[in-house]
Specification:
heterodimer; A: 235 residues; mainly alpha; MetI-like fold; 11 helices; 0% strand; elongated; B: 228 residues; 10 helices; disordered C terminus
Chain lengths: 235, 228
């Protein structure tokens, strides 16, 4: 059997040869550590994106001009420029503003994806709020609710149903986009894979495993988004 | 006046090397993004139609491709095209972006076609329209109007994500800027370079989004889109 395998060329040499796979699996901890960093950045980044996105989404439906203009500007800027530049700007600008503060690269990643996807989530939230008729807000206010109170108790709970499917899709995109951290040596899954692969040239097996791990993180969420979409359409 | 001109930022901004460098970077960015957009529109349309067709094997091949690819980071696909497929940097970026974007375009096209109720198909066929005629005159007009906004925002994403090509050393806008930031290394100069690059990306993307919005308004006014 082993003689047979030894005669199959691509198993012995080439980008996907058996020794490369063995090297990868004996150092698999590297990828696991990277995946944990990715999960950390993604979950904290998502929390930041949700907070920013909700605040800016509510601002963009405000009756006052100033918050509306601010929200518009924020969304247009972050949606029309690359995430990579935003990350580089934070990386270079923060040490100027706070020279004595040490900021770990992971925190820059969290801020980067949080602010970038915050802009997309703001648009989702705005669409959700606008899907609820103007009359509902007026009715709530006429019953003595404040603007914030009406949002909190009347509008947002209803808008959640419209908002959840695209929000889940944004979570998927956010996880994938944490990979830009690799470019600034952020220690995430993409970086761990890339630097391991680069050291010995085991690109083939490493990228396949890295891809598989990203897929395992994203696919369940993507399925959930589709399930939610079908439920909303049926309702 | 002299004090203003001696400022490191002004000194940098009056250096033609900056604009020549960024100009070449923008050209490569537009080349990578433009090619990826054309290629992924073509492949995306084929994939989307394959999945929409409902033909047993063809449908599953398309669905498998789409579901795997859209759950992978674009950067991984670009790195794979470069290091595993061994393509030159510019082509690796183009192909990596195309592999990903085709899957997204395919889903947008399928979603647009699905938004037309089957009753409209049946009505068209019962009136003697052929498959192609029903597609051309009944199904496509309202669904194309629906597809335009998400497709265009995906194109904007392609232009933004072409900046990932700096990871494989393609001299596109983002990488050119980072190289210039090594020459103009003072913090305020670096920040200014990134602001200038952001403005260039912003101008290109904002132009595309505005044209698309016009196009969509024009198309949806001209057509009877009852029920669409």
């Amino acid at each position: 059997m082993s003689e047979l395998l030894a005669n199959i060329g691509f198993l012995q040499e080439g980008p996907f040869s058996v020794p490369r796979w063995e090297a990868l699996f004996s150092n698999f901890g590297v990828l696991v550590d990277g995946a944990l960093v990715t999960l950390l950045v993604a979950s904290l980044g998502l929390a930041l994106a949700l907070a920013l996105g909700t605040a800016i989404g509510v601002m963009s439906t405000s009756q006052w001009r100033v918050p509306r203009a601010f929200a518009r500007g924020y969304v247009e800027f972050f949606q029309n420029t690359p995430l990579l530049i935003q990350v580089f700007m934070i990386y270079n600008a923060l040490p100027i503003i706070y020279p004595r503060l040490f900021i770990p690269v992971i925190a820059i990643g969290i801020m980067g994806v949080g602010m970038y996807h915050g802009a997309y989530i703001a648009e989702v939230v705005r669409a959700g709020i606008q899907s609820i008729g103007r009359g509902q807000l007026e009715a709530a206010v006429s019953q003595g609710f404040s603007y914030v109170g009406a949002m909190r108790y009347i509008i947002i709970p209803q808008a959640m149903r419209v908002v959840l499917p695209p929000l889940t899709n944004q979570a998927v995109n956010l996880i994938k986009n944490t990979s830009v951290l690799a470019i600034i040596a952020g220690g995430d899954l993409m970086y761990a894979g890339d630097s391991f692969a680069g050291r010995f040239g085991h690109y083939g097996p490493t990228y396949i495993m890295v891809g598989l791990i990203y897929f395992l993180m994203c696919f369940p969420l993507a399925m959930l988004a589709r399930r939610l979409e079908e439920r909303t359409r049926a309702a | 006046m002299e004090a203003i001109m001696n400022n490191p930022v002004m000194e940098m901004l009056s250096d033609p090397v900056l604009y020549i460098g960024l100009g070449y970077g923008l050209l490569l960015t537009l080349q990578i993004a433009g090619l990826s957009i054309v290629l992924s529109f073509a492949f995306g349309t084929i994939l989307g139609s394959m999945r929409y067709s409902g033909l047993p094997v063809i449908k599953h091949v398309a669905a498998g491709y789409i579901e795997v690819v859209r759950n992978l980071p674009t950067l991984l696909l670009i790195l794979t095209s470069y290091f595993v497929l061994g393509l030159p940097a510019m082509w690796a970026a183009t192909i990596g972006l195309t592999i990903y974007t085709s899957a997204i375009i395919a889903e947008i096209i399928r979603g647009g076609l699905n938004s037309v109720p089957t009753g409209q198909w049946e009505a068209a066929r019962s009136q003697g329209f052929s498959f192609l005629q029903s597609m051309r005159h009944i199904v496509l007009p309202p669904s194309v109007v629906k597809m335009i906004p998400p497709i265009v925002s995906q194109f904007v994403t392609v232009i933004k994500d072409s900046s990932f090509a700096m990871a494989i050393g393609a001299y596109e806008l983002m990488f050119k800027g980072t190289i210039l930031a090594a020459k103009y290394w003072k913090p305020e100069q670096i920040i200014t370079i990134y602001i200038v690059i952001s403005l260039i990306y912003f101008a290109v993307n904002f132009l595309i989004s505005t044209v698309a919005r016009r196009l969509q308004t024009k198309l949806s006014v001209g057509r009877g889109t009852i029920g669409a």
